[in-house]
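Worked Example 4.2. Consider the chain below.
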Amino acid sequence: MENKIAMDKEPTIWSISGWIFSLALVVVGILNMALVHFVPGIAYLIISLVYFPPANTYIRKKLGFTIPLIVKLMLGIALFMFTLGVSDLGDMIDKL
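Applying the procedure from the previous section yields the following structure tokens:
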């Protein structure tokens, strides 16, 4: 018996936006690792797993629950406000 994660057959707006947002967080994590410090970069990479649709499917199948969309939206807004407003990465982007 194979243990595969089933992906959606047709992409929806939520799965496409999940991919875009998670890839944006991966980019922010890589920039944090390269320009600021290693620890916040790793934190961003781990948090970005919440937004990948296959990871969401895996969490739903293995743990039996999903993270609600409103929680994902609030977390995403807080992360980008922190990244661009408070963190050292935002200061480095402003200097460019």
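The two ends are 53 Å apart (CA to CA). The chain has one domain: 13-95. Compare this with Example 4.1 before moving on.
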